Amino acid sequence: MDLTFNAEERAFEQEVRDFIAQNLPAEMKHAQSLTPSVFSDPDIGIAWQKALHAKGWGAPGWPVEHGGPDWTPAQRWIFEAECARAGAPNVNVMGVKMVGPVIIGFGSPEQQNFYLPRIRSGEDYWCQGYSEPGSGSDLASLKTRAVRDGDDYIINGTKIWTTHAHHANRMFALVRTNETERQQDGISFILIDMKSPGITTRPILTIGGDHEVNQVFFDDVRVPVANRVGEEGKGWTYGKYLLEFERGSGIASAKLREALKTVSDLAESEATGRAIDDPDISMRMSEIEVDIDTLEMTELRVLSALQTGQSPGAVSSLLKLRNSEIRQAVTRLGVDVIGHDGLYVEPMRPFYKLNEAPGIPEEMLPVVPEYLNSRAYTIFGGSSEIQRDIIAKMVLGL
Amino acid sequence: MDLTLSDEQRLVRESAERFVAGTYNAEHRRRMASEPLGFSAEIWKQFAELGWLALPIAEEHGGLGGGAVEVGILMEAFGRGLVSEPYLSTVVIGAELIGACGSEAQKQALLPKVADGSLYLAFAHSERAARFDLAEVATTAWKTAEGWRLDGRKTAVLDGNAAGQIIVSAQVADDNGVGELGLFLVPAEAAGLTKRDFPRLGGGRACNLELRGVHVSADAVLGDGSDALPVIEAVVDRAMAALGAEAVGIMQTLLDQTLEYTKIRKQFGRPLSANQVIRHRLADMAMNCDEARSMALRAALMIDAEPVARGRAASGAKAKIGKCARFVAEQSVQLHGAMGVTEELDIGSYFKRLLAFDTLFGGSAHHYRRHAALGGRTIQA
Fold first, then answer.
1. Are the Cβ atoms of B294 and A298 closer than 8 angstroms?
2. Residue A341 · residue B37 · CB < 8 Å
3. Cβ within 8 Å of residue A378, ≥6 positions away
4. Helix (H) or strand (E) holding B41
5. B207 beta partners
6. For A124, which of A15, A118, A365, B114 could close a Cys bridge (C-beta 3.0–4.6 Å)?
7. Of A60, A89, A85, A95, nearest in space to A75 by CA
């Protein structure tokens, strides 16, 4: 057994560091550091995707025949960790990490040829049409209907919590194509052009003050049948496949460590009156750091299993649960660390484009919004309660 | 980066699990509780035959040259059966202390005896006033014409009654005052040594020691007599990694038994495990077991790293596994209902062993503080 990366992997790590040093501009890094939401705004997210694409790194997890860089699981881990350490923006994960693998796994050659290059290059920006007002945790009860009319489906209904629908030009959605006895069997997976007539988007502001999510309405929207991925009625299977990627991309610890470092730097600064000298804050800092060590080690165990061709098992639920809980603990600690300055509200977004200097140190601006936004971590992608159900069923066999 | 077991490691695990499953049960533990040693000398011989006592000892001293990962594999299996043989005191701590700072003559004299099962060791370090601070020792060792004179009290010395040689830590003192920490080999029958032997929480035995004018020869000091604190810290880190692995075995057994029980036990016409509140609790227990597994392995894999990284990994593991263990232990009792608080089920024995684990070498708060201190940060007590 060996916990360290080998010489080749360390050389790759250096290559990634060098690439980031040359291609991540200071202003992009600064903008990302002032981003309180889970997703980076497209101005920096797409710019970073284009830089990665130019290097051939636009789709790290994809097989080489679809333009992936042919990385080992260890290389992917190193790449993600280095991007997190450097404070690089988040790319459009709905494209690269969610719909991409589904199109690769189940799409037609035509779909693969059309969509995959546009995801890699950052030309297309995707959003995810899963949840509906009446279908949250019980996703399979979804009601948005797609009715066959010649070579088209006609879609009516609504999707909600659609992250960046206001930026996206494409959506992948689960829609009901059949009323079946088992509701999962009537669902299909479909790719929708967001400029199609009949689509309207309503912004939903969240408690952190950010516009990230939306409700999307479909009013007799025509979508070619050719945009359906795989078989009709098999959408649930594809959708669950995608959720595995959404929950357990398996590389969260590096981001959490950076987030904790930001809080720790604040706590050690005079700007917070050295909050770190408070034993409660200092103790929580240590507990969280050890929790991140634990998560990282679990990620490495999964990585090692993947490297040797073993299946890591139903561990994505555990990773998702702990990642979200630690994220909430870090951001909550941040609020306690900045003390009085947590009362200051800056309604303008993004924080990196303010017209005048804020009334508190700039680096404190995202702290409270981050905490408020982070409450969503234990809800999206299958709530913590759903994850515990999955663990009870898949890990414990209950 | 490879965290898969080698074929050899897999063999060690299989043989240890098989041996433990076939040897240890509630009836066996009851018998051991009334043994003067708290364990079976016969089984210890079998440990020797299986090569387990030689496992982490260097090859030139009759050992197999294994490391913390292999010891962890054994300890996890030991946890499953609540093994009470003095593996931690003799092999993980005693032999490591001798291996790390003993003279060549001391290693040649003692380590082969550990490997062949003819010598038990104990480490007498903790003192009541020090709590879990490894550097705080009031016991003194005065240089005399013939050797050393030891005076002091040691508390909760694991397997001190069984040990043929007790390794005693003391401040080296002379007319100029008190100096660095030294380690001294004290034979069990030394004059002036008093032992108050008692059954230990969770199985096995321990004793409180009083040393009143105990004279040992000049060659009783381990090694060249230079400050032993760094070695003590390294070996205690190793012991905590091993104990962490043992705790994983204990926790996994508690989870397995509790899972089984909630499937069988019916109330309101259905099994307990049909209730979501129970299923979620079990899911949390499973996650805590898995996290403990990660941290025990991490501590073992970092045991040969430089002292700060090693110490942070060991203290992080002790703190985290302690928290996980408390959760799994308490919820196991809770989900067994009233039966969980009786001596009629095994659950209580496993619970108590985890409580002992949490106490040994200091609990979570102590180790979060050490973790922070090694990272350059002080947490006010």
1. yes
2. no
3. A321, A324, A325, A328, A384
4. helix B41-49
5. B157, B197
6. A118
7. A60
CB B72 within 8 Å of CB B14: no
Nearest-angstrom CA–CA distance, A54 and A40: 20
What pLDDT digit, counting tens, does each position of B58-102 carry? 999 999 999 999 999 999 999 999 999 999 999 999 999 999 999
Q: How many CB pairs under 8 A join A and B?
A: 127
Q: Is B172 helix (H, G, I), strand (E, B) or coil?
A: strand
Tens digit of each residue's pLDDT (9 = 90 or more) over A318-353: 999 999 999 999 999 999 999 999 999 999 999 999
Give the number of other CB atoms < 10 A from CB of residue B209: 26
Give the gap in angstroms from C-alpha B316 to the nearest C-alpha of chain A. 6
CB A128 within 8 A of CB A94: yes
- Is a pLDDT exceeding 70 seen at residue A236? yes
**DSSP string of B81-138?**
HT--SSHIIIIIIIIHHHHHH--HHHHHHHHHHHHHT---EEEE---GGGTT-TT---
- pLDDT tens digits for A91-120? 999 999 999 999 999 999 999 999 999 999
Q: Look-up: residue for tokens 């930001």? A: A262
Is residue B377 within 8 angstroms of chain A, CB to CB? yes
pLDDT at A313 over 80: no
B51 by DSSP, 3-state: which? coil
- Indicate the pTM of the whole model: 0.96
Note the ipTM here: 0.96
Q: What burial class does residue A222 get, using C-beta atoms within 10 Å of its C-beta: 0-12 exposed, 13-18 middle, 19+ buried?
A: middle
Sign for the CA dihedral angle at A319, A79, A260, A350 comes to negative
Residue ranges in chain B assigned as alpha helix (H)? 7-23, 26-33, 41-49, 68-81, 87, 96-101, 104-116, 229-264, 276-301, 307-335, 347-359, 364-374
Asked if B373 is an interface residue toward chain A (Cβ–Cβ < 8 A), one would say no
